[in-house]
Design brief:
- Two copies of one chain form a homodimer.
- By secondary structure, chain A is α+β, with helices and mostly antiparallel strands.
- Chain A is built from ten helices and seven strands.
- A four-stranded antiparallel beta sheet of chain A has the order 5-6-4-7, with no helix packed on it. In chain A, strands 1-3-2 form a three-stranded antiparallel beta sheet.
- The two termini of chain A are 33 Å apart.
- The relative contact order of chain A is 0.17.
- The interface between A and B is medium-sized, with 18 and 18 residues.
C-alpha cells in the first residue's frame, strides 16, 4: 500500500517545521510565476495546511513577506489574494535556473590560480590563498579531470550542506512510490520537493560532482528532484483555486 | 683579432674577484675528478694565476679547503700536491649531473597542490600556501603547458639569480671567438665557464624554461655553457702538470 500524504510530507520536511516564510516564497515561485498570477488566501491556507503548517504560522509568515516587499495583497470583494511584487518576481526568477536546471549536466572543473593577495574570481570557490575552483576558466586556469584530494574537496562545501544532501536524498527516496493525489496534494508535495532541492541548489557552488567531498549526495538529490518534478507536474492555478473552494 | 686570454677571464668573472675557495672546488671537480687524481701546488698556482687570482688569496683558500675537509695535501719529496677527500668527491659528484647535464632537455612542469599547512613536496618550488611547482607529478598534480602569470613565475627564482643569468650570458657571449690557447689557458677558461654556469645550475630549480620569470636567460646560459664545454675540452692532468713545470 503506498504511503499516505502526511507521511510523504514528513519525509520531505525531515519531521522539522520548515521556515514558513521561505516555504511561501517557494509556493509563489513555483505555482504563481506569471506576472499576473495570484493565489487566494483560501488556497494558501489549504496548501500550507497540507504541508503540515499551522494557520497562525502561515499568517505570521504572510505578514512578514508583505512587510519585506516580497508579496502584495489584493482584495476582490470578500476574497483576498496575494501575488509576488516586482522585486519578488526578480528574486524568484534569478533563482529559477539553478533550481529548475536539474537536467543540466554539471559544468567543467577548473583550478584557478590568482595572486594570493587578491580575492578568488567571482563565482569561484576559494580553496586557499591564490587558489580557487571554478566552473569556467578565469585568469590562469588548469582543467581538472581527476578528483582532488579530500582536504581540498572538503573546502568546496561545509559539512552541514553535505549532511543536508544525505537527509534530502533519503526524503526524496521516500517518494519513490506515490499514492493517487489530488491537485492540492500534488501541489503541496511538489512545493516541498522544490523547497528541499532549492536549499541545496542555491548553496552548492556550480562545480562538477567529482569536486565535492566524500559523502556528497548532490547528484542523487538532483536526479531525484528531476524525477519528482516530472512525476508531480505543476497543477494550474485555476484548477487549484477551484479545488480550494470559494 | 681574437681577444686575449685576460680579456676573456675578465668577461667570465664580470671584473669581480670570484670567491676563490669555491673556484678551487670547481678546479678539483672539473680537472681532478678521478679518485686518485691529484693536482700539484705548482699547477694550482699557474691555473689560479691564469684566472687572475693573487697567490696569497689562492694560499688562503687552499688552507681553508683543507681545514674544511674538502681537500687533503700530499707531499712527494719537495713537491706538494692536493686531492679531494672522500667527502669532497661525494660533494662534487653530487653536483655533477646538474652542472654537466647541459644537454639534458628541461623537465616537465607540474603544479602541485598540497595541504596548505604542510611544506611543499621535496624538490618542488613553493609558490604559496598549498601551491608548488615541480618537474614531476607528486601528490595532486596538474600538468603545465602554458606560462603561468608573471607574479607566479617571479616566485620561481629571485631577481638576483635572474640578473646573474643576464650577466653570465653576456660573459659567455664574449667567448664566441677563441684565440689559440695553451692547455693551461684552456683549463683556466674551462674552469671559469664551469664555475659561472654552476652558480646558476645549482641554484635554479629543475623546471622547464617557460616557468621562469621574464628576463630569465637560463636557456641562453645553458646553450652557451654546453657549446663552450665542447670547445674547451678538458686537458688531461699529465699534460697540464708537464706544462706547469717542475
Amino acid at each position: 500500500m503506498p504511503p499516505d500524504v502526511p507521511a510523504l510530507v514528513a519525509a520531505l520536511t525531515q519531521g522539522e517545521t520548515p521556515r514558513v516564510w521561505s516555504l511561501l516564497v517557494t509556493v509563489f515561485g513555483d505555482l504563481a510565476q506569471g506576472p499576473q498570477a495570484r493565489v487566494s488566501g483560501v488556497l494558501l491556507a489549504r496548501l500550507t495546511e497540507a504541508m503540515g503548517i499551522k494557520p497562525e504560522a502561515a499568517r505570521v509568515a504572510l505578514h512578514r513577506l508583505r512587510k519585506d516587499g516580497w508579496i502584495e495583497s489584493l482584495r476582490e470583494g470578500r476574497r483576498s489574494s496575494y501575488r509576488l511584487t516586482q522585486a519578488g518576481h526578480r528574486e524568484t526568477a534569478a533563482a529559477s535556473p539553478r533550481i529548475y536546471g536539474v537536467d543540466k549536466p554539471p559544468g567543467e572543473g577548473w583550478l584557478l590560480i590568482h595572486p594570493p593577495a587578491e580575492p578568488a574570481p567571482p563565482g569561484a570557490v576559494a580553496i586557499g590563498p591564490g587558489l580557487a575552483l571554478g566552473a569556467a576558466a578565469q585568469g590562469f586556469a588548469l582543467p581538472l579531470q581527476a578528483p582532488p584530494p579530500d582536504w581540498l574537496r572538503a573546502r568546496v562545501v561545509d559539512a552541514e550542506l553535505v549532511a543536508l544532501t544525505r537527509t534530502t536524498a533519503v526524503g526524496f527516496a521516500a517518494l519513490a512510490v506515490l499514492p493517487a493525489l489530488t491537485p492540492l496534494e500534488t501541489a503541496a508535495l511538489r512545493v516541498l520537493v522544490v523547497h528541499a532541492w532549492r536549499r541545496i541548489a542555491l548553496r552548492a557552488p556550480d562545480l562538477p560532482d567529482f569536486l565535492f567531498p566524500e559523502g556528497w549526495q548532490g547528484p542523487a538529490c538532483r536526479a531525484a528532484a528531476a524525477d519528482l518534478l516530472r512525476r508531480l507536474p505543476r497543477p494550474d492555478l485555476a484548477t487549484l483555486e477551484a479545488a480550494a473552494g470559494p
